[in-house]
Amino acid sequence: MQRIEIDGVPVFTAPGPERVTAALTFGVGVRDETYGILGVTHLVEHLVMGSLPKSHLECNAMVDTEMTVFHATGRPQAVVAFLAGICAALADLPVHRIEQEIGVLEAENCPGAHPTAAALWAARFRLTGPGIALAGGGVPVGLTGEVVREHARRWFVRSNAALMWHGEVSADLRLPLPDGPRPQRPAPVRRIERGPVWMGGPALGVGLLISAGDQLDAAVGAGIDALVQRVRDVARHERGLSYHADMEIADVAPGEREVAVLVDARDGEEASVARLLWEQYLDLAGDGPSATELQHVVDGYAEDMDKGDETVLGELSKAAYCHLFDLPYRSGADGLAVWRELTPQQVAEALRRTVATAVLLVPEGVNPGALGGGIQRRYLCNLVPYLPKTGTTFRPPLLARALNRGARMRLVVGDDFLAHADADGDGHVIGWDEVEAAVPAMTGEGVFVIGRNLCGIDVHEDVFGRKAVDLVRARLPRSAWVPAAPSRESGRSAAPEASVAAPADR
Ligand SMILES: [Zn+2]
What we know:
Blueprint: E1 2-6, E2 9-14, E3 20-26, H1 40-50, E4 58-63, E5 68-74, H2 76-91, H3 98-108, H4 115-125, H5 145-155, E6 161-166, E7 197-201, E8 206-213, H6 218-239, E9 245-253, E10 256-263, H7 270-287, H8 291-304, H9 309-324, H10 332-340, H11 344-354, E11 359-363, E12 376-377, E13 383-384, E14 392-394, H12 398-403, E15 410-413, E16 417-421, E17 427-431, E18 435-440, E19 446-451, E20 456-460, H13 461-464, H14 466-475, H15 498-501
Parallel strand pairs: 2-6, 7-11, 7-12
Antiparallel strand pairs: 1-2, 3-5, 3-6, 4-5, 8-10, 8-11, 9-10, 13-17, 14-15, 15-16, 16-17, 18-19, 19-20
Helix pairs in contact: 1-2, 1-3, 1-5, 6-7, 6-8, 6-11, 7-11, 8-10
The protein binds zinc ion (ZN).
């Protein structure tokens, strides 16, 4: 692998087939958005791709939590032209096509991050950093051309780009990207938790999040691979069930890797899958993998290093990624050499260090039962046992409360906060200074208030009366208002957390 530079953009390249593959990567993804501009990165990507002339080139683009990638495979000249088109479109974004592309995004209905991973990032970081993915994946609403251009100007610049090119580099390859300072990502705020903890949330299946720390820590990497393998094997062999188990990684900063292990669960099996995942994790953290298990994951790594072009592409992408996020780079071959030296004891010790950071997530309403390892129950949002007393209290009309248990709720509007208690007495409190977004109701007068602490409070005239709505509106910071979505389905659910929990709602 070679590193060269073209027009100020680092290019990671290696000899390869005549049909070259190139990927232009930008260090911007959903985690760089805020609630008010959710989906803007995906919109930029669509505006750019939509501006390219029709061709038969094999090409595509994607946006995930961390980055945006434009890639193509074909004759070198065609790939050079593809990259030139990307750069030209980014330099002068065709914002006149925003409405059209929003229509396409609506039809695409892209879920963004895996919902369980998104909920786990949010459990760790609330709505900051990768946690915003919990609300993301949606279609941007009410964005002006200027807002979209501003986003592109800040993030899609040469100092935030890297190219990987597999094949002989064409002499006429140019990357005339807009100039701009290398964007600084604010560090996401880690929720302090004396773990391990478990909680319910908008999960599809079951998830386990651990802070793996150092990106190059082989022992913890092998331990997580062994865990994924265990869950698959135990489910398949001992229970006759086949579960899909996988992992998703968020590299929040150098030395701050978060790994989410995601396991499918059939309806009704969530609690037992959660127990299986947790027990196997604790077991590996206690005794480590067997020598055979460890050998198996090392063999898996070796196999990944022996896939020809696919391996080279993976290495080039990794180099580009590490460059963009200032992460330490180590070649696959060097990594494998380190993995080969690992002992089961080292793996066990590495996993043991992560136990205090573990978050086990189950779907809302699922109780995993008794779990070992001193795990405690927590809540995704800032649930409180009782509401603050100082403030104006609103309740649904007396008749509604008499007839419907679910209507026995309460809203308190204080000088510093908005609070809501549901029929079960669970309270949610959002300080005015921690409001992330205020979304107008689709029908009637109302507002859904979303806190950075992941509480969501629905204030609607049909439930609490017009006075409550007016009072809340007057308190909300101007900057929090998000335009109403014209296409959203009618009627917002009265359940708190609904909007944050269901990305499709937006
Ligand atoms: Zn809450």
